[in-house]
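Form 7-S
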Amino acid sequence: MAGEGTTMVPVTISAAIINREALREGFGLRDDPGAEGTGAGHRVRRRADHFIKLTENGGERALHIGVGVAEAVALGLTQSGRELHRPMTYQFAASLLTGSGTGLREVRITRLTDGVFYAEAVLTNGAIVDARPSDAVNLAAITGAPVLVAAELLDLPTGPARDSNPEPAD
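Output:
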């Protein structure tokens, strides 16, 4: 859970950035068997091929989170408004929440620890569920729930400097 003193900043899901060249080369997994990271987060990779960009509401700060191809494509489809014949994973998850009598109140991206981002999905029934940021943001995009980011994460370098963080030693 986010610490008591953590300032959370509302953000907009600005973009799903998909590296089309990486898609042609095999879904962006070259030399990166741990693309999804460990635990409930995403490993910060030296050369992530796909990103979710979150931009501070009314501000200039942004956070880029490296994600897998499936998560980036799912967000891109949601943002484009394309209707599919059958529900995809995130539409199904939203329907499960609704069917069980709850919903998504908000998403919180809370911290970066050992090169891994962590998030929480806060439900309307008060439950807080540990989540990968890409999954939580995709669910927020489907449901219209707000996304909040810990302020210190928005102060991280962006662009090439952000993408060149060293990977943890094996």
